[in-house]
Every structure is written in C-alpha cells, then in structure tokens.
Design a protein that fits this description.
mainly alpha, globular
Length: 305
C-alpha cells in the first residue's frame, strides 16, 4: 500500500516535467531548423563517405564523419538550439507559463534541456549508426582496419557527451546573457580560440579539435587489453608485409589489378594520441556538463522573470 502511494506521488511530481518535455520535443521536431539540420547532416555524411570510400580506412573515415559534430559546422545549430528556451522572446512566454501553471523554474529548465539533449542525440544517432555500419561492414578497396566494436561504441558515446556539454554550455550562456545573438557570438569567440589553444598541447579531454584527431586511436582500442603505442605501431607495420608481397606476386601472374593503398590523412592519423584515456575524456567533458547545468539552474532560479 505504501509503495503504491509512493509511486503515485512520484508520478504526480514528474507530470509537469514530462509534459514540458513532450511539448518541447514535439515543437522542436516540427521546427524548420531541426528539419534542415537533419537533411544537411545526412547529405554531408553521404558526401564524406562517397568522397573517401576508396581512400580512407575505417578508422579515419569514421573520424571524418564525426568531425562535423565536434568542430564545424554543427556547432552553430546546437548552440542555437541551446540558447533559445531561456532567452529572447521565449522569456516572456516562459514567465506566463511558470506563473500560470504548477511548473517550477528548475522543472522547466531541466525539461527543456532534456528535450534538446534527446533531440540532438536522436538526430546524431539516426545518422551516424547506419553510416558507421555501412563503413565497417561493406567491402571497400582499402586494407582492413583494426577498429573494434568497443572502440566504435565508445567513440560515438564520447562525441555524444561533447554535444551534451555544448548544449549545456549554450543553456548557461542563454540564461546569463538573455539574448540569443549575444550568447551565440560569445560562445563562438570563446569556443574556437580556446579549442585551438588547447589543441596545440594535444589535450583531447578538453579540446574538441584534439579529440577529433584522437578518435582514430580510440576506434582501435579493445575493452580487455588495450595495446601500447609501440605494440600498435609494430603490428601495423609488420603484419601486412608478407601477405602484401605474396598478393602482389600472384597479381602479377594472374593479371588481376592490385588493391590501391589506403591514404593516411595526417589530421586523423597524426600518431600523437597513443596515451588516449577514455576515463580522462569522460571526466573532462562530463564534469563540466554537470557544472554548467547546475550553474544554469542557479542563475535561472535567482533571476527575475
């Protein structure tokens, strides 16, 4: 009996949160910005796959598909989605909604933040999961790459965490500055210069630019026994030598065309991230995400509507 009462109380407390979450998801899904973004990311992903289909191995190709989400151009879309619920003309609508309905400020902010995170993750996964499956399962005229299932899942999760952090940062900027355009300008002039400076020191746990370069390294990691940089480079250099020589020998006598050598893009195969740590990256983006959400809640609670 007591458990039923507790469940009922919990459901009644979550009803305002779920109502705002559902309303925002429906509104966002019907917006032109989200529809254009979804179409543009599908087109860009297909163009990147088609352009590098016969050149890049699995690791660099997947890393190139994740680059637009980490660096450019989807940064601007995510920031616009993040700053809009708590700034500009939405502030007046928000004031009427909070004053006339039993919805607290923290409930509204968490619901709208959750709606944008769910939407961004949804668009991101709907595009990236089929693209990664296509790249890894299709037979392409490039040498096989040592990407693993653990590496693919962890890399996709890391990029999703960065998108969550960027959404939270946009929420905080919109809450503090109250003007969407001003918040967008401030974030652009802070995000890219700071990212460039941190990328000089190869700090992938803080710089999205360095993280996009280190994704290829993470894609080849295993869950149980991660390889050291020396073992990885030695295996990459020694293993294909004899089979490649024998393949070329038989191709000469059979007249079959030999497979073209895969290109090694310097940006994604720099080799400077042998000490890549998944835990450091998760903490480097996860803790600031929690901090920005908490600060946005505090600022939103204290400010006058």
């Amino acid at each position: 009996m007591d458990s039923t009462v507790e469940v009922t109380r919990l459901g009644s407390r979550l009803m305002p949160y779920l109502a705002v979450l559902q309303h925002d998801l429906i509104t966002l899904r019907a917006s032109r910005l989200v529809r254009l973004w979804f179409g543009a990311t599908v087109v860009l992903t297909l163009l990147l796959i088609a352009g590098n289909w016969t050149q890049f191995q699995d690791g660099p190709l997947i890393a190139s598909l994740l680059f637009p989400y980490l660096v450019f151009p989807w940064f601007f879309v995510i920031v616009v989605l993040g700053v809009s619920p708590v700034s500009g003309s939405r502030a007046d609508i928000l004031a009427d909604g909070i004053l006339s309905r039993p919805v607290s400020r923290s409930t509204y902010l968490l619901a709208t933040w959750s709606a944008r995170v769910v939407l961004i993750w949804g668009v991101y996964l709907v595009v990236m999961v089929p693209a990664v499956l296509l790249v890894t399962l299709a037979k392409r005229p490039v040498p096989d790459d040592a990407v693993t299932l653990y590496g693919i899942v962890s890399a996709i999760g890391i990029v999703g965490l960065v998108l969550t952090f960027l959404t939270s940062l946009a929420f905080l900027a919109g809450t503090v500055l109250r003007r969407p355009l001003l918040a967008l300008v401030v974030l652009v002039f802070l995000w890219y210069p700071v990212g460039l400076i941190l990328s000089v020191f190869s700090l992938e746990e803080f710089s999205p630019i360095s993280l996009s370069q280190a994704i290829s390294t993470q894609l080849r990691q295993t869950l149980r026994t991660p390889e050291t940089p020396a073992d990885s480079s030695a295996r990459a250099e020694e293993t294909p030598v004899v089979p490649r020589q024998m393949e070329r020998f038989f191709d000469v006598f059979s007249g079959a065309p030999s497979a073209p050598a895969a290109a090694r893009p310097e940006f994604f195969e720099g080799g400077e991230f042998g000490d890549f740590s998944l835990l450091r990256v998760v903490l480097g983006y996860g803790l600031p995400t929690l901090l920005t959400v908490l600060l946005a809640l505090l600022c939103f609670h204290w400010r006058d509507l």
